[in-house]
Structure formats: C-alpha cells, structure tokens
Amino acid sequence: MLALERAGYIELPAKKRNPLNPLVYREKPALVAIDPDPIEGRLCSIPPLEIRQVRRSALEKLCDSLIEQYHYLGYCHPVGEHLKYLVFAGRRPMACMIYSSAPRHIGCRDRFIGWPVKIRRQICI
C-alpha cells in the first residue's frame, strides 16, 4: 500500500499512531566479570576444551556479554534461527561462537555469485 501511495496511485488516510518496535530499544547485555589474566604456559598445560551449546540456558547471557565486551562490533541479537556456544577450559570461558541461519537473499552476494532473482525464486519456493 505504501508503494502505491508513494507512486501516486492512491492516497492513504493519515496514521492514527506509530506503534513502538521493542527491538529497536533492546538493551545491551550486562557486562559479566571474568578472569582478565592471560593464560600463559605450554598448550599441554591448558585443561581439555569443552564446547557447550548455551542457547536458552543460564550461560546464554555470559555468551552475549562476552561478545559485547570483546567483539569489535559488539553484540547484536541474531536474526532467525541461531545457536550459541561457549568454549571452556576447565571452568574458564575461552571462546564464544554464534551461528545464524543464512539469509535467503543478499544483493551483493547474489550478484557476486551470479544468482539472478528469477533463478533464486525458482530454487527458494
């Protein structure tokens, strides 16, 4: 409808209200204190690494906080289906990983791989 109005084909009535989008004002994750001292020594002295999925667990907030504190872009809530992992050495978190489902279309990627809209629509239906 907005596209038709912008093109001059129709005239819509004035908006009655602007609904708030709660996702726009989402709070950043709270900072969580961890041991700031670097790990030094031989690799064999580090306890075995354990990878834990933390999505929808008590450790999810820790993952979000560490991404917010240490990733150069900060934390941004993933869109769509996603998984979150923490890597531990003993009780100490060593790494965070977040995987999101791939978007169906991204213009620059589609042009780079030569994936025209017509073909993409045939495949993704």
Helix and strand element order? HEHEEHH
Number of β-strand runs: 3
Beta fraction of the residues? 15-25%
* Average residue pLDDT: 88
Helix content: 10-25%
Q: Supply the helix-strand structural class.
A: alpha+beta
Briefly say what this structure is.
The chain has 125 residues and is an alpha+beta fold. The chain has helices at residues 2-6, 60-70, 107-112, 117-123, and strands at 49-53, 82-89, 92-100.
Task: Give a written overview of the molecule.
- With 125 residues, this protein is an alpha+beta fold.
- It has a domain of 81 residues.
- Strands 1-2-3 form a 3-stranded antiparallel beta sheet, with helices on one face.
- Strand 2 and strand 3 form a beta hairpin.
- It is elongated, with a radius of gyration of 22 Å.
